[in-house]
Amino acid sequence: MRESLVRAAERPAYFEIANRGLLEQPLRLRRIAVSKRALARSAHRSMPDWAYGESELDTARRCMAALSHLLANRGRPAAEIDGILADHPRSIFAHCLRLAVIVRDDNRAAQSALAASIAAITAAGSAASDRAHRHAAAATLWLAGDARALEGYAALVAERPRDGLALAVAHALDFRLGNRRMLRDRIARAIRHWDSTMPGYAAILAMHAFGLEENGAYRHAERLAGRALALDPGLAPAIHVLAHVMEMEGRAQEGLDFLATHEAAWGQGNGFTIHIAWHRALFHLQVNDAAGALAVYDKQIASPSSPSIAALADASALLWRLQLRSVDLGTRWRRLADRWEKAQLAEARPFFIVHAMMAFAAAGRAAAATRLLETLPTVDITEAARILPEYALAQPVCEALLAFAAQDYAACLAALERVRHIADRCGGSLAQCELLAAHLRRGNAARAKDALGGVRPPREGAYFPFPGSS
After folding, report:
1. Whether 12 and 151 share a structural domain
2. pTM of the model
3. Which of its termini does the chain have fewer beta carbons within 10 Å around, N or C?
């Protein structure tokens, strides 16, 4: 009895968030027909305090719509925010939105826009709230490449857990920094202060579900993602979580059926379109259908009309897996390497640099690979705790990829050994990073192949190895 009481006391608090009360709120709450006045009250209640000072009601409404799209990964929130600022250049709410979307997406190419919004908030002085100034201060740290930016956003969330903007950025930074427990617990603590009548609740619920999934709580993650999808049909982040859970548990055919059923929701018009197609391809690989995976690549991932660097990373990650299965890829590596050579990589995240290197190594682009290595900053790996860990990982992993392509497996493994101690913080999902370290314990060519992405049977806590997209 005493032992069971101790176990109960040690049980993580986040499970309270996934209890019956959360999962079984009355369905009527989802369908309440509210008057315009009630809707306005609801929107006002959910707005961060620095949004209330908008002099134009239309500006506030547009900002709230952009915030909703940002949280749900719908449409083009960055373009919406730019449009608001073009019409209302002094809108503090819009400037805070722009800070958040740039930092959340780690868009280094938008540093000048970020600096302009920081300057605008600073220049506003007392006309901007303390909360807005703190958003600017946290973004300033990110602009300087200082990982302590997360501390600024975390403090905002701790004090005002309904600040969905700060919550979204902190969640993204937790992911990139490999803070697995906080990826779960930060949202778990904040969501206690939300309810299903509040705009953005379903998106926050999906964030919580992703944190649970990344910590191996698959049943809780699946239930909460399912509830988010019921509250907001077509919510791509919830679909993404459910795809993760099914992959982790080896439910490949179920995953294929699920994605086919919901394709109208995720297939276009959101930030997950290419990435969920990538998950579809992984389901095909799980059932040993390499031809099906290749068909998904050709139809939904390799399209030149998808120019984002994240889409290119998904393309590299899939082709690498197919190549390790000895699938004939024809000219696909060459065409993908062409696209990577045209990409703006000078300010790209190291996570994406690694994926560009995959294409250059596989396509034999030695000159492009050399140029890419030269863009990487020199990093003292012993100082990795003070910087974004993916910066410390990038060069050794790139060197390992080149050595692997040259069949120099000893050099490949030697490069990976240098970063064993931070391999679980690659800036991707748990299995991508964890398996990089775990496979270092296996042997030679097969060992190197495993370490750089060999497809293995799913198991609890891991479904595909680093490198790859989340």
Report:
1. yes
2. 0.81
3. N
